[in-house]
Amino acid sequence: MPRPHCPRCCRPLDHCLCALIPRLGSRTHVLILQHPSEVRHALNTARLAALGLDNAELRVGEVFEDLPQLLARPGYRPCLLFPGEGAQPLMQFAASAAETPALLVVPDGTWRKARKLLHLNPLLDELPRVALPEGLSSRYRLRKAPLPGALSSVEAIVQALEILEAPARFDALLRPFEALIEGQIAAMGEETFRRNHQRD
């Protein structure tokens, strides 16, 4: 018989994270485009971010037919949080028109799946592309980062919001994420974690 799950955070009821999820307001509107392969992932950090932010929405799919409407939010400047060629530092984007709130589009998936989302939704490629500062380190101790400075979705969103809305803080969003990581480590056992995941 399957374990009962919380309908909100989608975790097993005996590991529900809802009590740790904050309710934070932001000027920035966060639009998370999640690849379907991430939905049932045990560490679905994008969902935690969407639940903790009042001004955020999570869409799941590969092709987003209503993307033009999603991006045409009046009074917002859209940008795509995705590193690589042509990406400007997010701090530069934030400073260029600080009085206008950003619409921050965040593709959620592995690097390969996130690139696929961009390929299948060409409108995303027309957005100004922004990147976080180099040298950030992830607290995501259960996944080997594919690139130096790679963050989980919730960590990237927190970093981005703290740049866009400085000096406001959004690290309360990381509380359920850290509890999730600790729970996974406890479930596998400390010795197994050290052997398979701990960095030298």
UniProtKB/TrEMBL annotation:
<comment type="similarity">
    <text>Belongs to the TDD superfamily. DTWD2 family.</text>
</comment>
<dbReference type="Pfam" id="PF03942">
    <property type="entry name" value="DTW"/>
</dbReference>
<keyword id="KW-0808">Transferase</keyword>
<feature type="domain" description="DTW">
    <location>
        <begin position="2"/>
        <end position="189"/>
    </location>
</feature>
<dbReference type="InterPro" id="IPR005636">
    <property type="entry name" value="DTW"/>
</dbReference>
<dbReference type="InterPro" id="IPR039262">
    <property type="entry name" value="DTWD2/TAPT"/>
</dbReference>
<keyword id="KW-0949">S-adenosyl-L-methionine</keyword>
<protein>
    <recommendedName>
        <fullName>tRNA-uridine aminocarboxypropyltransferase</fullName>
        <ecNumber>2.5.1.25</ecNumber>
    </recommendedName>
</protein>
<keyword id="KW-0819">tRNA processing</keyword>
